[in-house]
Write a structure and sequence with these properties.
The protein is α/β, with parallel strands linked by helices and 524 residues long. It is built from 18 helices and 20 strands. The strands form 4 sheets. An 11-stranded mixed β-sheet has the order 6-3-7-8-9-10-11-15-14-13-12. Helix 15 packs across helix 16. The N and C termini lie far apart (62 Å).
Length: 524
């Protein structure tokens, strides 16, 4: 059904173009034709959300059936596994370092290692401990990436009735689509790989041009994107919030106008990768009004969830797309044998480390994200942090959700806008007490930093009792705010070669590496 509809849409668009009708009319027809497909997909997803648990059982059975024929499956005796309890006994939770020996064999050109045959791509991503990581994408798993992005837009279209964004130009601020070959496997950034799978009938809507998208240097690329989009009818803009904001800032500097005055029909912002709240106020202020937005939860390892409703909290878990999910209580992630739960056993409001098993050949793979369910009918979640991004230098175990909530609450109370921030411990090895240091780039600085700091500390203590005990017990002294000058975080990311694309600033560090580098951009 889906394939036939896509073919119909493509052929009708081509037919209209062959008739010599103008592109504007073709786009309006495209929007009109998308509505029944959106309705069909929306109903299918709603129906599927009610069968999430049995769907997950079927996904696991399918993974085991295919996996037992691979080198990995034979080593782990998957032919003897019939259910989830047996699966947990056969395959331990692992990170990239433990998967790496199998990846190296694939890079040597070997077949049937983690999944049948060879991957059709490697998604290349940066790891904090492993250097560059090569995540396999297979013929079976590619649809998870492509169809989920499509489904997010179609659910929005079906729920709101807004299909007008399909009439204009759409921009996806992404990595270069240029691919290299490693072990005969095309390799590149996930966003660049996905760029190769945009349907031909949507290419006329897409910006920037392929040539511009291939530019590696972010600042050069952004300048070209601004040239190509200024004066165009932009209706949808997608990307990681800090880089979307950088695009907006330079557009406004060039034109002297708000974004909605530059792009009057801009009606939909699609984002992912970071918590939206710290960027929300400034983004909408730059736009000039509040518009609809769609949050997504993609990664090189899979497209896990997306915002399926403008009226409900959280992101709908993608439960029937070749990925079987496991959930480990966040405080057990470092245990040798942590508790592992399937979807049917999760509870509301608990923080879990997300572990995936997929038809890309990822087995009991800890992706490093912490999630919390806000609904179990249907299963919707929010991302609350990273397993490696926390502060527990003194036993407080402060996580991303807590610092983001605290800063945004206090900033909103004081009508202060935050551009970017990160937090690190300062361990005083001499005289004096240790403390948490907050590096914050303010859009408008508080009139009294000490008052702002005190309120921030009170709010964080309300969220984290361990931190509160350390402060009340005089083990830690009050937090310190180090203001960062305008564009300081951009300059920092540029200095480490991570400006633009899918890169983002970690909210929390358990050491001083980022903090010590940032000091040079502190306000005098």
């Amino acid at each position: 059904m889906r394939g036939k509809f896509n073919q119909c849409l493509a052929w009708q668009t081509l037919y209209l173009q062959l008739l010599g009708l103008n592109s504007s009319f073709c786009m309006k027809i495209k929007s009109f034709l998308a509505k029944p497909f959106a309705s069909y997909i929306y109903k299918t997803i709603r129906k599927g959300s009610a069968t999430a648990v049995p769907d997950q059982d079927n996904v696991l059975k399918s993974l085991i059936k295919n996996g037992k024929l691979t080198e990995f499956g034979k080593e782990h005796k998957l032919e003897q596994v019939d259910n989830y309890d047996e699966y947990k006994q056969a395959i331990a939770v692992r990170d990239y370092e433990q998967l790496k020996p199998y990846i190296e064999k694939i890079k040597e050109g070997k077949h049937n290692i983690l999944w049948k045959g060879q991957p059709i791509y490697f998604a290349k991503t940066s790891g904090t401990t492993s250097g560059t990581k090569y995540i396999p994408i297979t013929k079976d798993s590619i649809n998870n990436h492509i169809n989920t992005a499509r489904n997010a837009l179609l659910c929005y279209m079906a729920e709101t009735g807004n299909s007008l964004f399909a009439n204009g130009k759409m921009i996806f601020l992404s990595g270069s689509p240029t691919l290299e070959r490693i072990g005969g496997v095309p390799t590149g950034r996930l966003s660049g790989i996905v760029n190769h799978h945009i349907p031909s009938y949507l290419r006329t809507n897409q910006l920037p041009t392929y040539e511009t998208n291939c530019i590696e240097d972010w600042e050069t690329k952004l300048a070209k994107i601004i040239d190509e989009t200024t004066g165009k009818d932009m209706t949808l803009i997608s990307g990681i919030p800090p880089w979307v904001q950088m695009y907006f800032d330079q557009l406004m500097e060039k034109t002297g106008k708000k974004i909605i005055d530059i792009f009057p029909n801009f009606s939909l912002l699609v984002y992912g990768g970071v918590n939206f709240e710290p960027y929300k106020a400034k983004l909408f202020d730059s736009i000039g009004k509040k518009i609809d937005s769609i949050e997504t939860f993609p990664a090189s390892e899979g497209f896990f969830a997306f915002q399926d409703s403008q009226d409900a909290e959280g992101l709908l878990l993608n439960t029937n797309s070749g990925i079987f999910y496991e959930f480990i209580p966040a405080d057990e992630i470092s245990n040798e044998k942590p508790t592992r739960l399937s979807l049917k056993d999760v509870k509301l409001g608990e923080n879990y480390a997300l572990v995936i098993n997929s038809n890309a050949g990822l087995w009991a793979y800890n992706i490093g994200d912490i999630v919390k369910f806000v609904s179990i009918n249907p299963y919707r979640l929010v991302v609350t942090g990273r397993t490696k991004h926390f502060i527990s230098a003194f036993g407080e175990h402060v996580i991303g959700e807590e610092v983001e909530y605290s800063l945004m609450k206090v900033a909103n109370e004081a009508n202060i806008h935050i551009t970017e921030f990160t937090v690190a411990p300062f361990v005083n090895e001499g005289e004096g007490k240790s403390y948490h240091e907050w590096f914050i780039e303010f859009q408008n600085k508080p009139p009294d930093i000490s008052v702002f700091s005190k309120r921030l500390e009170e709010t964080l203590m309300d969220k984290n009792s361990y931190y509160a005990d350390l402060i009340h017990g005089s083990i830690l002294k009050s937090l310190k705010i180090t203001p960062i000058r305008r564009n300081g975080f951009i300059d920092y990311m540029k200095s480490i070669g991570k400006l633009g694309g899918q890169n983002k600033v970690p909210r929390l560090s358990n050491d001083r590496k980022i903090a010590d580098d940032l000091v040079q951009w502190a306000e005098n």
